[in-house]
Amino acid sequence: MSTRGNGWWAALAGVVAAGAGLALAELIAAWVDPASSPVLALGGVVVDSVPPWLKDVAVEWFGTADKLVLLSTMGVVLAAGAALSGWLELRRPPAGRVLLGAVGAVMALVAATRPEATPLWAAPAVVGVGAAVVLLRLLVARVPAPATTAAVPVAAGGIGAEPADTTAGTEAETGASRRTFLVWAGATAVGGVLALAASRTLAAGSRAVEVVREAIRLPGAATPAPAVPSGADLGVEGLTPYVTPNPDFYRIDTALRVPKVDPATWSLRVTGLVDEPFEISWDELLDLPMTEHHVTLCCVSNQVGGDLIDNALWLGYPVRELLARAGPQADADMVLSSSVDGWTAGTPLEALTDPDREALLAIGMNGEPLPEEHGFPARLVVPGLYGYVSATKWVTELKVTRFADDEGYWTPRGWSARGPVKLHSRIDVPRPGTPLEPGPVTLAGVAWAQHTGISAVEVRVDDGDWMPAELADTVGPDTWRQWRYVWDATAGDHSVLVRAVDADGQVQTEEEAPPAPDGATGHHSFGLFVG
Ligand SMILES: Nc1nc2c(c(=O)[nH]1)N[C@H]1C(S)=C(S)[C@@H](COP(=O)(O)O)O[C@H]1N2
Ligand SMILES: [Mo]
Question: What residue ranges are annotated as transmembrane (predicted)?
Fold first, then answer.
């Protein structure tokens, strides 16, 4: 006669126990530091250890939803592990508790060794998983015995009873013990939900940073940006706007939770190979004369035709002034900038000291304080370099150093130490698959070669000649430029291609390269059907 029918109850016990434990961990994390959440810490380690090809695949498939996909996948894996722990605890006690305890120990270790962690960051995992272990024991002890047709008069699952997998009760007894189990499991689940709700309420306190942000009045620019010429936007429907509104600006970072940085406690330290290291507070920074500059920021992971690129008006203090105040030493050639969350970028020193390149410690984006997900209260923006080697968000330190001695976050992960932006162009209009009719069809898009500038864009249809496109105005070489080409379309299948020429006369290569290690190349092209 089978006594195997209660494994599912045990699995449920495992999920409920582990869920409640992790909810308790969230509550403690909300008090210790929201980033000490064992789930976030574990996710952070996963993010830090994905190989470049997998990161590429994730970005390509899920775009900026990659974080959600990661957290959901972790949820499924954790739930499966929790179910297994319940089953093990029923069949092979204490194997279930041992499994939970082992996972908890790993989580504690991982949380306590995050770059910005203190030893206290282990507390949420230790307390949460400790609670999960106790709850697992209590719930599995109440897993109802499987019903049998034979009336074997054995009590199942009283308080403190051993797991009832080898005993079988009558249907009535099984019904009663099932109710007992469900009451216990239900109570545990309710406790978990309450803990989670309480943790969210506590975490809402950190929304205070958003309140501070909204109250900030940015200083005016001592060196304002030139006005955007009206001809910078060609007004083609569906074409990417010259300046990207903040809510549409692409977001890329390794932070599973947006760091909440209060300007009152923020400061930037300039350290390393300098004569006079110093630290500057938010208030001191705001008193400095600000520069405004349009810069198109671009991600090295951007695929040919991809949209991990946008343009904004940044307000900030020139990094070269900060460096001049510190006095870099002669043997330095790199600045390692770090974020509150431990992320780093290695930027060539000469790009930051160059008087002709507006590298900014930015505090404003399109007339607002930086949005939290774009680095509030301060970040770097350097024209001409990919974000991963320059655009540190939530920046707190500039360490003057040498490429021979230090490397940024992505370098040991398979990306080049130096990342100048590559010459590129993209077709935005029409989208592939748009129904078209013979006659004039407007092709339009953007082209970029930050800090060099774009001098021409050319379009080719099928095997025809490269035809010059009309170029929109720009404020300068540090932003992308819109282009437009009116094509006299004939019926049938066609392919369209675009390429750009930079201000030095260099023509965009047709050679295809993937994003790793230093940026994708190749012409953006696709098929169009005219009929
Ligand atoms: N702190 C921190 N700053 C960061 C990153 C990060 O992961 N953490 N990613 C960089 C990368 S790879 C890019 S492309 C830009 C993107 O900036 P955005 O999210 O404001 O568009 O931020 C850079 N700054
Ligand atoms: Mo990036």
Answer: 68-88, 95-114, 120-140, 181-198
